[in-house]
Amino acid sequence: MSHILKMTTAEWFILMAAVVITVSGEPDPCLTSSIWTDGDGRSINCHVDYDKCDRYMEPGWYRVQSESGQNLTMPTSPVPVNSCGTKYPIWLKGDHPSSSDGIVDRVACVTYYNSTCHASYQIRIKNCQDFMAYYLGKAKGCNERYCFGNAEGCQQSTTQVPTSLSTEVQVTDTGVTGEPDPCLTSSIWTDGDGRSINCHVNYDKCDRYMEPGWYRVQSESGQNLTMPTSPVPVNSCGTKYPIWLNGDHPSSSDGIVDRVACVTSLSSTCHASYQIRIKNCQDFMAYYLVKDKGCNERYCFGDTYGCRTTTPMPTTTNIDPFFKSPTNWGSDIVSPDTVLYFAIAVVVAFLIGLVLVMLLYIKLYKSRNMVNGQKQLYKI
Q1: Are residues 195 and 84 in the same domain?
Q2: Chain centroid to CA 57
Q3: Are the beta carbons of 316 and 213 closer than 8 angstroms?
C-alpha cells in the first residue's frame, strides 16, 4: 500500500494506461469506441433512402447515439425490409450482454423478402453500463445496413463519426460572389483508375456515393485532365454508362459557368443529365460535380489508355464511417467470392476427370471384346 502511495506521476500514468487494456490484451471498447451521432435514418421506423448500405464502412468499435445524446442499441427482433434507411436491414439475433459478461460474440441477421435471417454477420458487443459498444464489420453487399434505435422519421445527422481519412486544407480566398475560389480550393484528384474514355473494363464503377464539390483532375504523371465534350460510348470510363460534358469549356474570363453533363445509355447519348459547374483556372479546369442517381454511371476524364488504379478522389470533412468510402467508389453489385471460384474449379475438374474415366473405361471395354473375339476365332 505504501508503495502505491509513493508512485511517481509517470508510474501512475502507466498504471492508468494499463487499466484501459483488458485481460485479452485489447483496448477497452468502453473507452476507445468511436462515438457516432445517429440521425440519418438507421431507426427501424425510417422507411426511405433505400440506397444506403454498410458495404464500405470501416470495421471497428462504435458507440451509437441519437442527435439528442441518447445512447442507441440494435433491435433484438426481426426488422422488416425497407427499414433503417435501407432495403435489407441488419438486426441483432440475440440479447445484449450484461455489464459482467465482458465482450461477447453475437450474430447479426439480414432481413430479406423470404427470410428474417437471409444472411448473418459475426459481431461483438460489450455492455459499458451507460451504453453498448459494438464491433461491426462491413456488409457484403448493398443494400444492407445496421439498424439502431426506434426514432420516428429519418432525420438527417449533423454530426458524423471521425475517421482516419485525411483531408486537404481548404484555402478561403473569397471572390466577388462571396464563394471560395475553386481555382484555389479544389481538391486535387490524381486520375488513374479508369475514367479515361479508353478504359473499357471495370464496368461496375459509379459516382452515386461521391461527395459533391469542386475537383481538379490530373493524370498520374501530373497532366491536367478535362471532361470529353463529345458523346462517349457505353462501356467506357470504367463504367457502363459514362458521363460527358454536353457543351464547351469556358474561357478564363467567363468565371464560373453552369453546364450540362450527359449520361450515355444503350439507347441515347443523353439519356439523363446533371447540372455541373466549371471554372477555367488557366492551367486547369475546376469542376463542381454532383452525385449521380444510379449505378453504373460515372464521370469521364481524359483519353489516356489503360485502366490503372491510383489515388482516389478526396472528400470533405465529417465523413460517416458507415458512408460509402471514396476509396471504394464502385457498384452496389457484390463481386463473386474467391470461394465460389474455387468451388467452380473443383466442379469443372471433377467433370473432366469423370469424362476421362468414362473414355478409359470404354477403351478398355472395347479392347476386352476384341481379345475375346480373337479367342473365339482361335477356338474355331
Answers
A1: no
A2: 6
A3: yes
Tally of structural domains, the chain: 2
In this structure, the answer to whether residues 130 and 174 fall within a common structural domain is no
pLDDT-based confidence at 47, cuts 50/70/90? confident
CA 203 to chain centre: 16
Q: Residue 106 is inside which H or E element, if any? A: strand 103-112
How many other CB atoms are there within 10 angstroms of residue 286's CB atom?
Answer: 21
Distance CA 206, CA 209 (A): 8
**Cell digits for 324?**
460509402
Contacts of 75 (CB under 8 A, 6+ apart): 44, 91, 92, 147, 150
Answer yes or no: is 350 within a domain: no
Residue 199's nearest CA partner among 246, 243, 245, 235 is 235
Dump pLDDT digits (tens) for 168-186: 333 333 333 456 889 988 8
- The three-class DSSP label of residue 200 is coil
Mean pLDDT in residue range 264-287: 93
DSSP letter (8 states) at residue 326: G
CA–CA dist 331, 324 (Å, integer): 11
Burial of 24 (0-12, 13-18, 19+ CB in 10 A): exposed
Query: What pTM was computed for the model?
Result: 0.43
Reported confidence tier of residue 40, pLDDT bands at 50, 70, 90: low
The DSSP line for 278-289 is EEE-SSSEEEEE
Q: Going edge to edge, which strands form the sheet with 88-93?
A: 34-38, 60-66, 132-136, 115-127, 103-112, 88-93, 144-146
Element (H, E) at 241: strand 241-245
CA dist list (Å): 159 to 66, 174, 321, 341, 347: 10, 26, 12, 41, 50
- Mean per-residue pLDDT for 294-299? 85
Q: Are residues 125 and 181 in the same domain?
A: no
Kindly give the pairing relationship between strand 144-146 and strand 88-93: parallel
Same domain, yes or no: 72 and 112: yes
Q: How confident is the model at residue 160 (pLDDT cuts 50, 70, 90)?
A: very low
Range of the domain at 73: 17-146
